[in-house]
Amino acid sequence: MNTIINQIKDAVVAAGKNLFQVEFPESAIQFQSTRKEFEGDITLVVFPLTKPAQAKPEDLGLKLGEYIQNEVTHVVGFNVVKGFLNLVFSDAYWLQNLDLMVSASQWGMAPQNSKPRMMVEYSSPNTNKPLHLGHLRNNFLGYAVAEILKANGHQVTKVQIINDRGIHICKSMYAWQVSGKNETPESSGLKGDKLVGKYYVEFDIQYKKEIKSLVEQGMPEEEAKQQAPSMLAAQEMLRAWENGDEAVVQLWKTMNEWVYAGFDTTYKRMGVDFDRLYFESQTYLKGRDEVIKGLEKGVFFKKEDGSVWIDLTDEGLDEKAVLRRDGTAMYVTQDIGTAILRFEDYPDTVSQIYTVGNEQEYHFKVLFKILKKLGWTQSDACYHLSYGMVELPEGKMKSREGTVVDADDLMETMAAESKLVADEQGKLSDLNDAEKTAVYNVIGMAALKYFLLRVDPKKNMMFNPQESIDFNGNTGPFIQYGYVRTQALLRKAENWNRVVDAGVTLNEYERNLIQLLYSYPQVIQQAGEKFDPSVIASFAYELTKTFNSFYQQCSILKEENASLKSLRLHLTELSGMCIASSMRLLGVSMPSRM
RNA sequence: GAUCUCGUAGCUCAGUUGGAUAGAGCAUCUGCCUUCUAAGCAGACGGUCAGGGGUUCGAAUCCCUUCGGGAUCACCA
User: Fold this and answer.
1) Which homologous superfamily is A407-585 in?
2) What is the per-residue burial (b if ≥16 Cβ within 10 Å, else e) of A222-236?
3) Could you give the CA distance from residue A540 to residue A419 in angstroms, rounded to a whole number?
4) Chain B, protein-covered positions (CB within 7 A)
5) Is the ipTM of this complex over 0.90?
6) Sign of the alpha-carbon dihedral angle for A400, A406, A409, A414
7) Under a CB-based contact definition with an 8 Å cutoff, are residues A208 and A200 in contact?
8) A404-453: per-residue pLDDT in tens?
9) Distance A290 CA to B3 C1' (A)
């Protein structure tokens, strides 16, 4: 499309000179896609040209249209509505592009590894409780953005930082020690992350009880929170861990292993993976070292009490502490360490993308500034992929109030729902149970992923467990269904003419499809630039709708004209390919039947 | 208090380099399966784009302001 647009642009400039004796400024030549209700393939907005040309919009449009039609081979018609000049391209132009698309090995994909390495961090859970709905949005987003960047030609490293250290895991450890009776995932039959999460909840219950009783004895609440025996015990455990106490470290290892095993199961079902894991327990000391180095270079300064700070007031931010009085690392300190370690591990990395909730926007502003001051110029290209919360009808998810939606449960529910729908339709009756289950899972996950990814990442979104996830309309299964139709057609098509006949006449359905398919590379590019999978989701939906409409209106296998049949099968094949390809970028798989 | 962000149909969401009559899905209602998979297609209904002001040929989009929701501003993570 670019080449023809450039030709039109040149024609407009020439028309300016020849018809009006003026030089149209580049910025005044504006195009937009033609609205559906009008005839045309591209629209020139003539308003900005009326001033320099000293002409009325309608007249100008007519004159330009005529000029362009004479100059540009593939512009075969035009019409003017108000100040809009709609240009019609020839069928030959679109058929030529169709030929281009079908002969491309992977239409839409930039050449692999043609662009520098980017690192995408996502998931990054704490190891004291199971994954929930918020993590699902995080993981799906991060994974999708990584795939989209790959499709744009980048080398991509998918990473996560596992927050395996700190008071939170000590809470679970302590509660397990007190009341666990050596319970293990094997003995309890619980997934490891669920087991550890159970003790985290127990800790919280006990802790609350203690606070209540202390407050009843007359202690102020703030003090009670600090003095509650179980909290003191958990803190003592953290100190013991930091000092390398063997028993504590052993317990910590054991319980973390349980959690990892549980997470692995969940990740597998989610369909996400990582190229490299980073553990906070291995990077937090690195962060401290980097801060000390920076202190020597004068990037940071030390206050009288021994704490270390950075002054970001010249950047419009505040002063920020990076080391505590006692010299220990803080949250931001570890992130400094992790970021630098990653740049050292993968020196060709030009950017790190952090998939983290929007409540941490300030944190990442600070982190990027600090990295820059430490001399890591890549920080300019680093990006906080900030996403909004998933809200429930009753408000936010709060683990303490039991209003979390568990990731495993939700995925299971989705599969069960899709089983209900599928069984009712009975189209899978000749499959065996394992094959059926695979289809249920693929459909359930599509519904879930698409639901979470079709929304602009930065916005908060609403999740209503009762009615949110549907299988009709603008949904993952709808798109899968369109794909399944393409595959059914292709299975039955047998041998057909693989050559695009450049002489056929296109109807509006065929034309719409070609136009949309032709825009796919730009869609991928836009999604990559914005780090926004919802761009891809919209495209996949639009494409499926357009295909369905085409499917309904045009007979394909029964078409008697061989050239037309070939054209339609090409469109079917290409549509199927692009639907699958775009959904693949979202991490959504396609069933071959449903 | 300061900063950021969001507010579009009953509900969930698209639509910002300023462009035509603001678009989908769900819900409600009407048609279409002896014909390539009806998880579909075609259509109807539904809007003071939170309110007000400004910028201009033109504003959901940019600026100002008011209201409302959310977030952030720790030697927490």
Assistant:
1) Isoleucyl-tRNA Synthetase; Domain 1 (1.10.730.10)
2) eebbeebebbebbee
3) 24
4) 4-6, 11-15, 17, 19-21, 24-27, 35-42, 57-58, 69-77
5) yes
6) positive
7) no
8) 899 999 999 999 999 999 999 999 999 999 999 999 999 999 999 999 99
9) 29
